Known about the structure:
By secondary structure, chain A is mainly beta. Chain A has one helix at residues 77-83, and strands at 5-10, 16-21, 24-38, 57-71, 92-95, 101-115, 121-132. Chain A contains one helix and seven strands, in the order ββββαβββ. In chain A, strand 5 and strand 6 (101-115) form a beta hairpin. The two termini of chain A are 30 Å apart. By secondary structure, chain B is an all-beta fold. Chain B is built from three helices and 40 strands. In chain B, the strands form eight sheets. In chain B, strands 29, 30, 31, 32, 33, 34, 35 and 36 form an eight-stranded antiparallel sheet that branches. In chain B, strands 8, 16, 17, 19, 20, 21 and 22 form a seven-stranded mixed sheet that branches. The A-B interface holds A 4, 6, 8, 10-20, 22-23, 73-74, 76, 78-79, 81-82, 85, 90-91, 93, 95, 97-99, 101, 120 and B 102, 255-257, 259-260, 270, 307-310, 312, 324, 334-344, 347-353, 381, 383, 385, 387, 542, 544-545, 547, 560, 562-563.
Amino acid sequence: MSEPIYITFLNYLGGMEYFFFHKENEYNLNMQETGETRTNLLPAWPNAWGETADTVDRTTYRKAKKGMRIKSQYLNANQREVLQYIKTSPVVQIVYSRTNRRTIMIDSDSYMVFNESENFATIQFSFVFTDDVATQK
Amino acid sequence: VGVTLIRRPIGHKLSETQLEGTIYDNGAGDAVVYVAGGHSLSDGDYVYIESDFDSYNGYKYVDAVSYDYFKIKNSEEGDPILWVQDTEVTMYVSALNHGWQGVHTPVVYELKSDIFPVNEAEEEYNPNVIDSFENYGGNVQLNLDHAISDPTALTWIELVGDGELAGNYQIMAVLQPWSVVIDMAYDATYDFTGYVVVKHYKNYCINVNIYAGYESGHRWEARQPFELAGTLKLIPDANGVKFSIHEILRGYMKIRNNLTLDTLPNNTDFHISFYIGYSESYDDSDGGNITTFTSSETEDTFIGHAVNAMMPFKSEDGPFMSPYVSSGEFLARWLTLFDRPVAVVGYFFDLSFINQYSGINLLVMVNGELNQTITNPGSGVIRVPFEFEASGENCVQVYAGASEASLSMSGFVNDDTVGETWSTGASPSVTLNFPVTDNNSKILYGDYNFIVGGSYTITVFTTVGGSGSGSIRVLDDDLNTLDFDIIVLVGGGDKSFSFTAPSGASKIGFSVSGTSLSITLSDLRITLESTEITERICIDVIEECGETFNNELRITDGEDLRRV
């Protein structure tokens, strides 16, 4: 699934940079944290261990953030050079409109550069949104 | 105040013209730079020196001595650089001195005291020696060559010398201004030969107040007038004290992308102006109790600008935003790293630049046509918004709009040259009747925020009695005349002077001469022709649903069109 995505980030000069990624973008869910608990079997013993027993361990909550992996279209040398600074930027956002933006956090370790030819390269990186997805807690 | 400001956070933009020179000893131990044929520099200029010796290298303040040689200092108030060896040097003259700096690197000042830790005046210029000493209740009574400064009990003196008695001592009693008892146990074997007595300033410190906000006349001054941002208490050593205020200024930066900020397109989240005031304090005494003396504050006239930026390491410009406030033929470069930024049809997009000038309107031109007018945004980081409706190449450049406005002369003042003094106010006037000193007036001047390279016309409206001549002048911060025009003053009326604002222009001045002349200036109008501010940059605007970069060859790759 490829959905174009328009990203802005604050550069080290104090200006905002914009770039449109339209090659290959995939949403995913990144699990942040899970909580499990073990049922006290004693009150319902021996049924808690018997044929109709439900579970011993169960999940109590799950926290996740939505994320995305982006693979860029072909970039020239200047674009390749500039876009690496997205890793260093404290403000990175997806731009939907002037008043509708969404802050994201770049996974710097995921940032990769592929030299496709002498003059062109592609980059790939992942990010997560800053807020949790709706879950049963 | 015994405190001197010896370094300010001033950035420089170097001209490409190279000067060759030779450094010699001037006979007094100071390094002087000799330039065969003349250097054309004056006090207040800065040069960047490259040589084989550390002491000479880097940005240096020019202290012109003659047409073909000058001394060099680290700053205006600094001491001359001492000669170490004769050498050939290569120099570049600073074409622009400015205060725009990134806030994420140190914003450095340097101050020096002439009374602490070395009391220079008393130790070097008027040394006080000990004529004799005696026992006073078990303590030492010093009988001095002359009265000491501030002879008050509970204050302190210092015995300056190489022996073991050197140190700081508290005055226990003052018998005479030249005879004091100190907290040193008496011993008849003491030898005070060679010691000098000076006043010691106990608990001395330099107090620095940092003020942050927007300057008078700035569009958003009312939202953020200058306020006390912080105070530093610093104890200097023999070299003074060097300190940074960037951590304090950084508190004014809001690291966010607020596109509904009230002050837009001026992104006040990313800019704050600043200056410092300084005073000194130390322990004092009324004879019975120890108090603290604090001097009145000296406010520095240099106003700097911190922006939410950081210049790269090993940049020729150091931490200063020099390439972005002056880039050759343009006054500003866009704050983008892209050679050709990419925008998308129908989506918000913006580019930022540093505007050094308050009180001007900005015309944003796209492909040579007026796209938008920004009315007096004030100085700072300007975010120019765009929302393109069609794909293609869009080349953007910002101009200062043509303008004409009256300038109040209420704040104009006289300089200190010899001549008749102007009466100041909204309509300044002066009368010259023979004989007057040199048959001249003083120079009446006031500040003006010129755009360097801008085409200006100054028109002054006069009422004249008698006859004479006058000069309309363009001055720099040190009141040097950078450009002027002679005007004939007979019968009054309006007199105009057109010029291109030179680098360093910051003031407008008037002077008149004659033997029977009275003149009143009733109005002052300044006309600015449209002037280029930013460099021209071209933006590739593409459609959301496909790649439509202009004039670029594509190859198919699956469903994608690749740029080649």
